[in-house]
Each structure stands twice: as C-alpha cells, then as structure tokens.
Write a structure and sequence with these properties.
It is a single chain. The protein is an alpha/beta fold. It has 14 helices and eleven strands. It has a five-stranded parallel beta sheet. Strands 3-4 form a two-stranded antiparallel ribbon. The radius of gyration is 21 Å and the shape is globular.
Length: about 325
C-alpha cells in the first residue's frame, strides 16, 4: 500500500518539479556558485517557509533573492531596513481623503508575493515585530480592517553579522519565525574569477519569468504529500529533544552549554524542509540524509547558548554536529 502511494507521489513530483530546472537555469545566469544558498531558497519556496540569509556584504544575498523573484511571474517588493523606518512604511497606514471626507487605507510594500527585507537588523524592534507578525499570521491589520496577504507569500531577509553599531539584533524568539537561517561563505577562487569576468562583461543575459505562482502552489501541495516514515519522525524528535535534554542522549558535556533548546517549530520545520529537499531530489519519500542535509539551517538559530559555551568558544554549529554524530540514524 505504501509502495503504491510513494509511486503515485513520485509521478506527481515528476510532473510538478520541471520548474526547478527552469529556475536554476535562470539563477545560474546571474549567480555563480552559492549552490547551497540557491537550494535553500527553493526549499523555502516549496515548504512555504521564510528564510534569513546571513553573510558579509557582497556575497550576492540580495541579488539571489531578486533573481529568484525575477524568475517567477509574481509580485516583488524590496524593503531596505533603516533605523528611521516606521511600521507604517512597511504595512501601510490610514490616509485622510479630502475628496471623500474619510480615512482610506494605503497598503504598504508588504502586500506582495516576495518580500526582500534587506538588512533586517538595521531597523528598530517595532518594525521587526510588524514584519514578523505578518510572516506568522499572513495578514495585516490597518486601523480596524484586516487584510490577508497574497499567496504565495515568502519573506527573505538578509542580515550583516560583522557590524554591531547602528544595528538591532533580532530577538531569539522572533528569529524562530524563520524556517531556515542560511549562513553564506565566500566563493571559491575559480568562482571568484568567473564573477570578476561576468561583472566586467558588456553583455548580461536577461532574466525571464519562467514560473507561475500557480505552479508553485501546486508544487507545495505535492511537497506536503511526500512520505515521512514513523522512523524518520522519531529521528526528527530525537534530534530536537537532544537540544533540550542533552544528558538523555549521551551528550552530558553540553548540559551547562545550552540555555534553551529548539522549539516545536524546529520539529515542524525539519519535517517540512526535509520533504522539500526530497522533492528537489525528485524523491517521494524522506530519508535520514535529507534531515542531516538541512538540520544546520533549521536548528542553528533555535539553540540558545550560555555564557559558559561562549567562554569555551562552543557554537550552535558544534552542538548540532555532535548531536547528528551521536543520535542513531534509522
């Protein structure tokens, strides 16, 4: 019975996944390297989860997000976060119309399919909260009216980790709203050469809109159908519980290192992201390697470290590595 359903899911994936190759072709016109980042953007797209990209300036974070939105025939808004930004600049506000002698709603840039929140840690808490509320509730309240946000709706935020002056770090509880936190590294030497050549060239290939929002919504529905065995569910819960109660999983050395473990959102997002990863690999079922592939991106922003861990230079990455190496793979 399960084999039959997996076969059916595989057939659906073959039908609905053609757009992934089309998107990759378009993105590769402008992005060199950064395969990990591009794959994570697709996972967010398929799993209906928001993404936080962290990396030093110049690593094509903004370009990648703009290019992904450019390859899809949907609305796109870029919001540059600054210290003087107000929530109304993001969600909209009420404006008095002299002609009609009444207040009318003026919707903000949040009313779009793809939102690029550029340098999200440059704006104060009120603006961050307004964005994160919209991400969670998929709706915005202006005055006494509530407006649903369009589907698909995906927030892709960037933050710069190297400057602390004039920034407002996202509170840990709010960072939890992001499905994935992707840390981006420098390109390899050969990739850097290709970037150099591409940016000195007179001719740049234009991006084409190759995917419709309807295709993405259909692919999301198929992604939810990807088979997740009970053994994989147990593997996910073991990984998450090991971040909360390390001593129960032969990781007593982390007892004084973890301030708080991953939330139930981590379990949900590990399952959804692994399904999306399996979809990208054209597979109708999740395997343990899928969980291990996306575990760092799902968990790194959901583990709170104590001062002892910081004093000993232990990072959340170290803890996740140790957990993955210790928990028995089904």
């Amino acid at each position: 019975m399960i084999e039959t359903s997996i076969r059916e899911i595989n057939e659906k994936i073959q039908q609905e996944s053609a757009f992934i190759d089309l998107i990759n072709l378009e993105l590769n016109k402008v992005i060199i390297g950064q395969k990990h980042m591009l794959e994570r953007l697709l996972i967010g797209l398929l799993a209906d989860g928001h993404i936080l990209l962290e990396g030093v300036p110049g690593l094509a974070k903004t370009l990648a997000i703009k290019s992904l939105a450019g390859a899809i025939d949907a609305g796109f808004s870029r919001i540059q976060f600054t210290p003087d930004l107000l929530p109304a600049d993001l969600i909209g506000t009420l404006i008095y119309s002299q002609k009609n002698e009444e207040f009318v709603v003026r919707q903000g840039p949040i009313f779009s399919n793809f939102i690029l929140a550029d340098e999200i840690n440059r704006s104060p808490a009120k603006v961050q909260s307004a964005l994160l509320e919209a991400m969670q509730e998929r709706q915005v309240t202006i005055g006494d009216s509530t407006f649903l946000l369009p589907e698909p709706f995906l927030v892709m935020a960037t933050q710069n980790p190297i400057e602390q002056e004039g920034t407002y770090p996202l509170p840990e509880a709010q960072v939890d709203r992001f499905m994935l936190k992707v840390v981006i590294s420098y390109p390899k030497k050969e990739e850097e050469k290709m970037i150099l050549r591409q940016n000195n060239s007179l001719h740049r290939a234009p991006l084409n809109k190759v995917v419709s929002p309807e295709s993405i919504l259909r692919a999301r529905a198929v992604t939810r159908e990807v088979y997740l065995d009970e053994k994989i569910e147990n593997y996910i819960t073991d990984i998450v519980f090991a971040t909360r109660y390390p001593s129960q999983y032969k990781l007593a050395k982390f007892d004084g290192m973890i301030n708080y473990g991953a939330s139930p959102r981590a379990s949900i997002n590990l399952a959804l992201a692994s399904k999306a990863y399996a979809f990208i690999k054209r597979r109708g079922y999740v395997i343990p390697e899928d969980i291990r592939a996306i575990a760092h991106d799902v968990l790194r922003h959901r583990i709170g470290l104590t001062y002892e861990a910081e004093a000993e230079n232990i990072t959340s990455e170290d803890i996740i590595n140790e957990i993955l190496n210790t928990i028995e793979v089904p």
